[in-house]
Structure formats: structure tokens, C-alpha cells
Design goal:
The complex is a heterodimer of chains A (141) and B (93). With 141 residues, chain A is an alpha+beta fold. Chain A has five helices and five strands. In chain A, 35% of the residues lie in helices and 28% in strands. In chain A, a hairpin with a 3-residue loop joins strand 4 and strand 5. The longest helix of chain A has 21 residues. Chain B has one domain: HprK N-terminal domain-like (Udp-n-acetylmuramoylalanyl-d-glutamate--2,6- Diaminopimelate Ligase, Chain: A, domain 1, 3-Layer(aba) Sandwich), CATH 3.40.1390. Classes of the chains: A alpha+beta (141), B alpha/beta (93).
Chain lengths: 141, 93
């Protein structure tokens, strides 16, 4: 099964809708609770990264019996230094976004923590592609 | 309102609310933008308490109503609100 969602930059009213639908879909197909929890965190953080930093992007969910894959691909400024962006507390979010409770520099670290595999490709002034894999562990965490 | 919560979680950061809270909790926050409702829905919080006298806008109230999510407001600060609830037996999420 796969699902695809268009995500628009700076659209904070609709932000999070894609992740909510991803959660419902994973519950419907009967994935493990711990898998759903991790996938939802990955999906939401990736969706909000597109909203906060990019012009637009696509969030795609692939569901396999043994794993969930989430791909976030955007057109945006790209990430000049991925290692720096992975550090907890590092953020380039503007002040008005921080006032909404974002921009604590935990987005990418949270995605990494909840993923079993994570690949990030980014080109400055072009965009970023993130692919996260979460295994569906039947024994929980 | 007849909703039971099994724990509390107090936070002013969206990411931390998403990552560290647990289902069926009471979420205490000073954030009043629409994303806190989306996160509360995803983490399966049972209700939200807006602290420091923050009042949510109509768009937030409407979305919360759609999600059957009760909203409460207090003038107390986050620390004091959590302390009072803890004193009355509510534990951390």
C-alpha cells in the first residue's frame, strides 16, 4: 500500500493533516502500536520540516508487512551541512515559527531516533529528499 | 465532561509533546496555535489545559470540537498547574 500527500510551505493550518492520515492508515492495516508511534513522529516531523523550510513537497508512505517507509521530498533551500542539522538544538527556523512551539532543533534528531534506517540527500537551493524506514517489530520496541 | 486521563504532560514545545507524552494523557501547554490540536489528536491526549491564561482562537476550538477534545483554561503557570495536579495524584506521562 502507498499514499502520497502534497505539502505546502508555510501552510500551518493544514500542516499535520498528512501525518494524521498516515496514522489512521497504519492503524487500519494493523501495524504494531510501537511502529505506528515511531512512524507518526517521523511523518509529522518530516511534514513540518517541509512546511517550515520548503516551498512545497510530497510526503509518501509505503507500507510493507515488515516495515513502513516514509519519504519526504521537497523543493526548497536544501541543507548545506546535514551533520550540523542532525545535532540536537540546531535550528534555522525563523522567530515567528519558534513562537508556535517549533524550531527547537529536534526535528531531524527525532526522525533519526525513531527510524531504523535514515537517508538524507540534499542540494542547496534545490531541495531535500529524506527516506526513513521503520521496521514493524512484532515484539514491540 | 466525563473524561478520564491516566497521566499528565506539560510542555511548550511541539516536538517534545509528540515524542514524550503517552496516550490518554492530559496535555498542559501555553501553545495556542492549531498545531497543538493536531499533535494532541496524534498522541491521543484526552484533553488540553491552556496555562498562563492563554485563550485559544475560534479555529482551534472548532477543530478541537471536531476531534472531541475538551479544552480547559487556567491563569496558573505551567509549573504550578502541573504541581497542583501532581499533588492531587496525577502522575507524569
Amino acid at each position: 500500500m502507498n499514499m502520497e500527500f502534497n505539502v505546502r510551505g508555510m501552510d500551518f493550518t493544514r500542516a499535520g493533516e498528512a501525518s494524521a492520515k498516515i496514522k489512521k492508515a497504519l492503524q487500519l492495516v494493523g501495524m504494531e502500536v510501537s511502529t505506528i508511534r515511531k512512524a507518526v513522529i517521523v511523518a509529522y516531523e518530516a511534514e513540518l520540516n517541509i512546511v517550515i523550510h520548503a516551498r512545497q513537497g510530497i510526503l509518501t508512505l509505503f507500507v510493507h508487512p515488515d516495515r513502513v517507509e516514509i519519504i519526504a521530498e521537497d523543493e526548497g533551500p536544501g541543507i548545506p551541512d546535514i551533520a550540523l542539522a542532525m545535532q540536537e538544538g540546531y535550528s534555522t527556523a525563523p522567530p515567528h515559527v519558534r513562537e508556535m512551539g517549533f524550531g527547537a532543533g529536534m526535528g531531524l534528531p527525532n526522525i533519526k531516533r525513531c527510524s531504523d534506517h535514515l537517508d538524507i540527500d540534499s542540494r542547496v537551493n534545490s531541495g531535500t529528499r529524506l527516506k526513513a524506514t521503520i521496521f514493524n517489530n512484532i515484539n514491540g520496541e | 465532561m466525563d473524561t478520564e486521563v491516566n497521566a499528565g504532560f506539560g510542555c511548550d514545545l511541539i516536538s517534545d509533546s509528540l515524542c514524550f507524552s503517552r496516550p490518554d494523557c492530559l496535555l498542559l501547554t501555553g501553545l495556542t496555535n492549531i498545531q497543538i490540536i493536531r499533535v494532541a489528536d496524534m498522541i491521543e491526549a484526552r484533553a488540553i489545559v491552556f496555562v498562563r491564561g492563554k485563550k485559544p482562537g475560534q479555529d482551534i476550538i472548532t477543530l478541537a470540537r471536531e476531534k472531541n477534545l475538551p479544552l480547559l483554561v487556567t491563569r496558573r503557570f505551567l509549573f504550578e498547574s502541573c504541581g497542583l495536579l501532581y499533588q492531587h495524584g496525577l502522575r507524569s506521562s
